From TrEMBL:
Catalytic activity of the protein: (S)-2,3,4,5-tetrahydrodipicolinate + NADP(+) + H2O = (2S,4S)-4-hydroxy-2,3,4,5-tetrahydrodipicolinate + NADPH + H(+); (S)-2,3,4,5-tetrahydrodipicolinate + NAD(+) + H2O = (2S,4S)-4-hydroxy-2,3,4,5-tetrahydrodipicolinate + NADH + H(+)
UniProt GO molecular function: 4-hydroxy-tetrahydrodipicolinate reductase; NAD binding; NADP binding; oxidoreductase activity, acting on CH or CH2 groups, NAD or NADP as acceptor
HAMAP family tied to this protein: DapB
Lineage: Bacteria, Bacillati, Actinomycetota, Actinomycetes, Micrococcales
Boundaries of every Dihydrodipicolinate reductase N-terminal domain copy: 9-117
Protein name: 4-hydroxy-tetrahydrodipicolinate reductase
Record-stated family: Belongs to the DapB family.
Enzyme's top EC category: oxidoreductase
Region: Disordered, residue numbers: 168-190
Source organism, top-level taxon: Bacteria
A cellular component annotation (GO) from this entry: cytosol
Alphabetic keyword roster: Amino-acid biosynthesis, Cytoplasm, Diaminopimelate biosynthesis, Lysine biosynthesis, NAD, NADP, Oxidoreductase
Pfam families: DapB_C, DapB_N
GO terms for biological process, alphabetical: diaminopimelate biosynthetic process; lysine biosynthetic process via diaminopimelate
Underlying gene: dapB
Length: 261
């Protein structure tokens, strides 16, 4: 995409003072053909978004829907990394997109909501969904830094959902679990019927294991982000391609040929 003036893609960042937002600002400034035109954070007036063609949103789950709605209502494409997009929020966003004005090039607005931009995490989710139907037991363990405000992680919630969908399509039954007494919640959360366990530990960044078990064997699929740099190629790819994907896309895998279009 180039904008109407042909001067590359003008990019705004919401949540620009945060851990991810600051990293995204650096990555945009270093990327060919992208120009950082606005940094916005808590309390800032988003206004005309600095004239951005594409906004990258990394704030907090309770703020992201209003920020994205602001962009969409102004015909600005959005790449969203913030978590918390349940079915209700996604449905509201679809309605907002249906009523949105066209973008600056006249094309319909595109929004990409991606729970994880790291290529390895996307592959982990894809592999887990492929493997899920072959195993009696599946559990997800996500491990993150202790400053993270949401649990389970957006990636774990998405992984559990993809696993559950794959199992349902294959006619696999519920995962085995004889537990009848768990007053402290030691068995973790159930997301789409899949047990999910959240660890918060100083020193960690973002990590996940999917454990799949059968009689006599276990398959472990693990991904580690040791540095937030791991998310940047995916974010930049999203910025470059979001205008070619009108409407709502959930998951960067749809831009990478890893999922049905
Ligand atoms: N999709 C992916 O690949 C990844 C997603 N994430 C997700 O991204 C989100 C941000 O993570 P992280 O950067 O670590 O969090 P941070 O807390 O470091 O950053 C969030 C920033 O957003 C600001 N903020 C709060 N409210 C608003 C608002 N209404 N408008 C604009 N900015 C606001 C915060 O300001 P203040 O602190 O002053 O409130 C803070 O500067 C989380 O949901 C996280 O799970 C994280 C990593 C990768
Ligand atoms: O808060 C984080 O750090 C992360 N959030 C995303 C999530 O909740 O899945 C992506 C990644 O795990 C890092």
């Amino acid at each position: 995409m180039t904008n109407s003036s042909g001067a590359g893609i003008r990019v705004g960042v919401i949540g620009a003072k945060g851990r991810m937002g600051a990293e995204v600002c650096r990555a945009v400034e270093a990327a060919d053909g992208l120009r950082l035109v606005g940094r916005f954070d808590h309390g800032d007036d988003l206004g005309d978004l600095g004239g951005a063609d594409v906004v990258v949103e990394f704030s907090v789950p309770d703020a992201a829907p209003a920020n994205v709605a602001h962009c969409v209502a102004r015909g600005v494409h959005v790449v969203v990394g913030t978590t918390g997009w349940d079915d209700g929020r996604l449905e509201t966003l679809r309605r907002q997109l249906a009523e949105a004005p066209p973008s600056s090039t006249g094309a319909p607005v595109g929004v990409l909501v991606a729970p994880n931009f790291a290529i390895g995490a996307i592959l982990m989710m894809t592999f887990a969904a492929q493997a899920a139907r072959f195993y009696e037991s599946v559990e997800v363990i996500e491990l993150h830094h202790p400053d993270k405000v949401d649990a389970p992680s957006g990636t774990a919630a998405r992984t559990a959902r993809l696993i559950a969908e794959a199992r349902e399509q294959a006619g696999a039954g519920p995962v085995s679990d004889a537990t009848t007494h768990d007053p402290e919640g030691a068995r973790g959360a159930r997301v789409s019927g899949i047990p999910v366990h959240s660890v918060r530990l100083r020193g960690l960044v973002a990590h996940q294991e999917v454990l799949l078990g059968n009689v006599g064997e276990m398959l472990t699929i693990r991904h580690d982000s040791f540095d937030r740099a791991s998310f940047m190629p995916g974010v930049i790819e999203g910025v470059r391609r979001v205008a070619d994907h009108p409407g709502l896309t959930v998951g960067l895998e749809h831009y990478l040929g890893l999922a049905a279009p």
